[in-house]
Automatic annotation (TrEMBL):
This is Alpha-L-fucosidase. It comes from Nostoc minutum NIES-26. InterPro entries: ComF/GntX_DNA_util-trans (IPR051910), PRTase-like (IPR029057), PRTase_dom (IPR000836). It comes from the Bacteria. Belongs to the ComF/GntX family. Gene3D superfamilies: 3.40.50.2020.
Length: 229
């Protein structure tokens, strides 16, 4: 009887489908999420900005990210960050294991409105899984920008001009390891490019970006960034 009451107490609803579950996700949604996994997470790992992506942005993974960001379910970041971290440990394209992990920041007004930065929560889970060093405030978003959704490639780029600044945890410090940026989604590369450019202009080495989901299935979009100085 005590065991039954304990199980009832520990039960919760799956944030994706509302089924009762003892885990973070029900078995059905966990299987559906795994089906979004990239066969080769490092297929976009090349210059000018190497990208490591756990899964393809669509299906259950798209739903999981939307629930995390827009339905006040920050706990979704933990399993997503863990999946990204496990994939990194198995498929890391980096031979040097020393990294400084920096999440892509939100502007303070947007973070206050949402209550959390999903990229920061994913980065925390990623570092718990991989053992890498986390710098939550390595970057700051100093200019409030429009939502990138619906903007053209040039509009996305202009939208992020001078949007980032080096944060207090990296400012005036000599790092002995490169930075790995972490975000929830990689799409056109505008956000990644702006963040990488901000760090590199201050002489900070950037290894690349690790994202839970990538909306890019080939190198066409990435190649367009090669023309940037």
């Amino acid at each position: 009887m005590l065991k039954g009451l304990l199980n009832l107490f520990l039960q919760s609803n799956c944030p994706l489908c509302q089924r009762s579950t003892y885990d973070e996700l029900c078995q059905y949604c966990a299987r559906q999420l795994q089906s979004c996994h990239h066969k080769d997470p490092s297929c976009l790992w090349q210059d000018p900005i190497p990208i490591f992506g756990w899964g393809v942005y669509g299906g259950t993974l798209k739903r999981a990210i939307a629930v995390m960001k827009y339905e006040n379910q920050p706990q979704m970041a933990r399993p997503l960050g863990q999946l990204l971290g496990e994939a990194w440990l198995l498929n890391s394209p980096n031979r040097d294991n020393r990294l400084v992990v920096v999440p892509i920041p939100l502007h303070t007004s947007k973070q206050k409105q949402r209550g959390y930065n999903q990229a920061a929560l994913i980065a925390q889970s990623f570092c718990q899984t991989t053992g890498q060093k986390l710098k939550l405030n390595g970057l700051e978003r100093v200019r409030e920008t429009k939502a990138q959704f619906g903007l053209s490639a040039s509009e996305r780029e202009n939208n992020l001009v001078e949007a980032f600044a080096v944060g207090p945890e990296l400012r005036d410090r000599c790092l002995d390891a490169p930075v790995l940026l972490v975000d929830d989604i990689y799409t056109t590369g505008a956000t990644a490019f702006a963040a990488v450019q901000t760090l590199r202009q201050r002489g900070i080495a950037v290894l690349g970006l690790a994202a839970v989901a990538t909306a890019v299935k080939d190198n066409h979009t990435k190649k367009s960034w090669a023309s940037h100085p």
